[in-house]
Amino acid sequence: MQPLDRSDQYQDQTGFIDVKKLIAAYSFDEHVQRADDYFKSIENPWVHQLRKPFHEFQDSRATLAGFAAVLDVAKLRAGHRVVDFGCGTGWLSMALALMRCTPIGLDVSQEALNIARSAVDEHPLLRTLDIAFDVIGETMIGLEDASVDRIICFDSFHHVSDQATYLKEFHRILKPGGLAVFHEPGPRHSASKASQEEMANFAVIENDIVIEDIAQIAQAIGFQDLRLAAFTDTPILLDMKTYLRGVERRGGLGFYHQMGKALMAQGYEKRVFVMRKAGETDADSRFPERLGAKVTVKAHNFDPASRVLSAEVSVKNTGNGLWLASGAAAGAVNLAATVVQADGTQRSEAARFPIAPTDTPAGMEQLVKVALEIPAAYGEAFIVELDLVSELITWFSEQGLSPTLIHQVP
Questions:
Q1: Less CB within 10 Å around the terminal CB: N or C of the chain?
Q2: What is the value of pTM for the model shown?
Q3: Which of 123, 102, 109 minimizes the C-alpha distance to 50?
Q4: Class (C level, CATH) for 288-408
Q5: For residue 136, what pLDDT band results from cuts at 50, 70 and 90?
Q6: Half-sphere exposure of 184 (CA within 13 A, CB side)
Q7: Which stretch of DSSP H or E encloses residue 21?
């Protein structure tokens, strides 16, 4: 059954629609029904919806540039549990899963989620990944307190009927130090021609994003450090002389004038911003800046008969973050041993050795037993190079730790 037409309550004599009155004219369930009816009417979602973000040239350019900004602002890492709020048919959730996050796509429309689930089930890789979808309630998100690392609202928060309610829910489900990131239109969105047409034709909510109002609500809830991203999704073409003067800082007011105009134009239409829940942020081994270690070989022995090198290695967490338990998951910390030919001409694949089955706090020392079979091709003189690895994130040597060497000579 179609929701009743109450446009007389929110549309004036000139046809202009007041979005606040439109929100009040219908119940939450009626707004949801309109969304469900829309997605139910789609005969083939692969024609448009499931092509996102590669659905058309103009929108794709802006979407991809905005997505790049969100990735940077959100400081995403493999293993992060991320809520994709207002996920629609799920393109962002699918992209996050491919980048080894654990996405939870939320939307008010069950029909939209049905399309998203079907697309995941049809994909040979996505269907093997951990992607969840769930319906958003009127006042609650069905997730436990402090259970997610990030929340992303990508062109979705301006569709909600009660911004304050969902901001409270965001704060509840975020872990301490977690981030809520928004990619949304600006403060005059509801008055734009496109928004007025959408509201007139479909009674869809096209609300304004007034950053001052959101900041006031967010601060009262307990969010901190609200910041906005200044960037432009449109490349600015300049003649070579203007460009080089600008980037080489030899003057060039033309360069800064063009850049300023582009930033102001986008800032007028778009808001990309982030806020943080109080608490320590990103304090584990998924974040390279947290990593530090001291590796000490306590003892080692090479048995020529079995060609097994045994060693006891002390590994101390000297960084300022928690090492996640050893294993294959993103951020899990393992000791890695690589056999190197004495003359450096040959290197083996790195063998992994677990440091601990539980997390290792900063300052803790662990003792690791290594038993490494040395291929016969490496002879009697070789080097074993010890490094640490945060799986799917980085090698500790890439963060400044010098590998520890075991020299074996005949």
A1: N
A2: 0.84
A3: 123
A4: mainly beta
A5: very high
A6: 28
A7: helix 19-25
